[in-house]
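Record passed on underneath.
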Amino acid sequence: MAKFPKPVFLPADVYLQRAQRYQQVSQSAKLGIKIRLAIILFELVGVVLIQSSALFLDAVSSLMDVVSTLFLIFCIKLAKRPPDEDHPFGHGRYEPLGGLLSGLILMVIGCVMLFQEVVGVFQVSPPRIMHPLAWIFPVTAMVLLEICYRMIVKTAKKENSTALAADAVHYRIDGLTSLFAAIALVAAAYIPAWSSTIDHGGAILIALFMVGLGLFASRENFHQLVDKVPDQEFFDRVKEASLRVEGVKATEKIRIQLYGPDAHIDIDVEVDPKLSVDVAHKISQQVRASIQKAWPAVRDVTVHIEPFYAGDH
């Protein structure tokens, strides 16, 4: 009597890579929070000393990003939970959901601050003389933010995390807002009659960048939540891994759902039509294992066996 074929188990390093992804993504986010808190304290000291709207708004932008990153870390932790009875496909969507919500919050805050600063431009206020070295506060923040951006975006690309990538862009944009704040402070220091208008103008530019950043972060994560087709490189990786399996003649339809730490694959594999069901089943299991070895983020693979006929494509 024929026996049911033994399952094809994945090597331990596949599960290890999944665990390492969570560690690296969460550690990068936590490092960013520590650096941002230091920047916020430094800039608030500057706000007390020079009373700058642009510098204050820059500090508020950083504070919002800390809140956003804390929420993102929480969502990343939820996303790593394994599938259960109520969530058979896992919890991976929590990660892009966190990125989407943080982006929307940033957009709303940016719009509110933009309105306040535009109103402030038309309010009469006495000219203020800025200290010529006031720019040191935002420039120092800009340098630290750029260093942090480079570290986090490297991890985001390596681990294919759109939520972390969106969080990384916060650092680059916040670096630019710090640059605008520095320019506004320098201009206000040497043109005191226009100091208030210039300061509000710099704050308006910062608010506009906050809105743009929120839109960018929301869009990228929204694409994952609505199952937008991922980049071609993922399809190529799946196809190459499938064709490495002995007995696979060709692949046809490949469908990929990609969100957060998880990917789900649905693939049609063509084999010799004369093969027995038993052998075809073994090939399908080997295809699944090959794909997951090549791409550890893949949580589940559904393989459809199709007969191969030369000239059918």
Remarks:
- The mean pLDDT is 82.
- The CA atoms of residues 125 and 196 lie 7 Å apart.
